Amino acid sequence: MNENQNKTKQESPKNVIGEVSAAKSSNGFKKLLSKKWVTPAAFMAAAAIIVALMWIYQGSDTTKETSATTSENTETVAGSDAAKPDDQALQAERKGEKLEWPVVNKDNLDEVLPYYDVNATSDEKAKAVIQIGDNTLAPHTGVDFADPSDQPFDVLAALSGKVTRVEKHPTNGNVVEISHGDGLVTVYQSLSDIQVAVGDDVKQGTKIAVAGRNDLEKDLGVHLHFSVQENGKSVNPASLVGQSLAQEKK
């Protein structure tokens, strides 16, 4: 009994020391959390990690949408610096041409997403809005076509001109831009099987690609996004189709 009592007495201080050490550690942690700077610092660190992950996911891309940046926020910006064709030569190339829809037969397709017209009715405007991300809405800056049976269809050059942009956009899918002179550019997005390259001269009605898919409007399935820009601003394609655009400005 004496030996057991002696062992207990000898071991007891170790337990006390361990408890004191744990208590000090716990108290130290509580004191750390009580510091006013700790919670904001933790929040800033978490925010920095989230921003870094978003930047890595988005890559170096600085544009977003088919369909709208800034006020046209998701659409790709027309007029790439990769090729700056001769303006007068392009106007001469399309002289006498009238803008056409970039498909073989528009009547065989459904207009699944219209152009956002500020002069339209409230109902029409509501149908021409796209969602970017979780909570952001933006006006649709082009017209989207799809085959009723969700089948691919040929995409044609709406006017003669020079291809000034061909790229794979992270949200808009494959994109082709054709410059026609005098600040006029046609934009074709959500493409597959692209048939042209930057610098190519194309005639009106030339097949440039096939309708495909993109992430921004994935709910639409296989479709074509078509838009027209004049001096960097989107205009309603329907307002220009059938018009002669070859009048030179002095």
Write up what this structure looks like:
With 250 residues, the protein is an alpha+beta fold. It has 4 helices and 12 strands, in the order αααβαβββββββββββ. Strands 1, 4, 5, 6, 7, 8, 9, 10, 11 and 12 form a 10-stranded antiparallel β-sheet that branches. A two-stranded antiparallel sheet has the order 2-3. β7 (173-181) and β8 form a beta hairpin. The radius of gyration is 31 Å and the shape is globular.
List the topology elements.
Elements: H1 2-34, H2 38-58, H3 87-93, E1 110-113, H4 122-127, E2 129-132, E3 136-139, E4 143-146, E5 154-156, E6 161-169, E7 173-181, E8 184-192, E9 201-202, E10 207-211, E11 224-230, E12 233-235
Helix count equals: 4
The backbone outline, from C-alpha atoms, is globular
Strand segment tally: 12
What helical percentage do the residues reach? 25-40%
Uncertain residue segments: 6-26, 35-82
Please outline the major beta sheet: 10 strands, antiparallel
Round the Cα radius of gyration to an integer and report it: 31 Å
Oligomer: single chain
**How would you spell out the order of helices and strands?**
HHHEHEEEEEEEEEEE
Report a brief summary of the structure.
The chain is an alpha+beta fold and 250 residues long.
Key descriptive features of the protein:
two-stranded antiparallel sheet; 12 strands; alpha+beta; 250 residues; 25% strand; 10-stranded antiparallel sheet
